[in-house]
Input
Amino acid sequence: MKTPAKRATGGRPTREAAELLAERIIDVATELMLQHGYSQTSIEAVASAAGVAKRTLYSRFPEKRDLFAAVLQRRREQFLAPVAKISNAGGPIQDRLEQVGMHVLEWALKADTIALRRLIVAEIGRFPELSGAMLNNSRVNLIKLVAEILEKERVSGVFVFTDATFAALQFLNMIMAPADMHAHYGAGAIRGKKKRDYIVSVVDLFLNGCRAGARPPAKRA
Output
C-alpha cells in the first residue's frame, strides 16, 4: 500500500496526498467487499480499516455505491490498460492475439476477479444501473480494442470477415469459456502449460477461419 505524501503548508493535503488517500480507501474497500460482500461492508468499516475519519471518506465518496463504482472503475482500468498497449504496439497478428488471450484468461481466472464477478452478480438486482453499466462498459471497451487489431488486418485483405466487432466478440467468447465454466459452474481451472496451449489453439482456430482463402459463411436466403 502506498505511503501518503506530505501535507502542503497550512495543513491541507497536497494533490498527491489526496490522490493517494483515495487510492488507499479504494484498496481497503475492494478487500472488504470481496471478503464480506457489498451489503455487509459498511462505510464505518472501510473508514476504520483505511485509518481515516468518516467525514473524510464521505467527502470523496458521498454514498457507498459511489465507493463501489470506484472499485469497479479501478478494476476496469487495470484490466484494459495492457490490452490497449498490445493493440497499439503492432507486430504479427498471431502474437498480439495470443498476448491478448493470455492476459484476458489469466485475469479472468484470478481469485479476486472471480470474487468480484460473483459480487456484481449478487448486487446487480440492487444496482442494475451501476453494476450493469460498469460490467458492460468493460466488455464493450475490450471488444473495441480487439476489433481495432482485427480491422487493420481486414482492411489489408488478410481477413475475409466483414464485421471486426462481431469477430472480436467471437474470439473473446472462446478465450473466456474456461474462466466462465470455472467461475459459474465450478469446473477446474486450467493452469500452467495447459493455459498457454489453450490460447495458442484458440488463436490458431480463429485465424484459420478468418484468413483469406477460408470458406466464407453461407448467405441466408
